[in-house]
Please model this.
Amino acid sequence: MCEDGLTLHLGDACPKCAQRRTDRRTTGVPEPRAKGPAPRWWECSGPACTATGKGPRPEDGLCWQCHERAAQATVEHLKAKLEADAEAAGEAARLRQAIRWSRMLEAAYTEHDQRSQTAEQQAAAQRLAAAEAKQVHLLREQLVSQHPELAAYAHKQQ
Model:
């Protein structure tokens, strides 16, 4: 609410303006700027970019927007590569799991076959032992019927 050093609503001197005047008197007038060549305009050399810039031209000739697009494209490319690597790693893990599962099933089937064969072999051996025991019993009975004097010996051996 200051106009030419006076506050409009009070009609008093503006304290800020007074302070500024004092500061200007103590610091003096600033030096004039060094005159040099005026900054030159340049055009971005990026593909399909129409941006212009003022001042020194960047070494690669690209504006900040083209740099941002290039950085974004690099980030997207790396992100896609990471996702592809993660997917490949997941697929490799699933494949390893499938191989482990297949090996485990194969081992279980092999063990089952071995146990089945062992059970079958044991059953066959038991049948053979029972047949032999029956044959021995028949032979002993036949021996006792033909030679009653050997009955005491035939029954001891059972």
Q: What stands out?
A: Helices lie at 15-27, 64-146, 151-156. The CA atoms of residues 85 and 91 lie 10 Å apart.
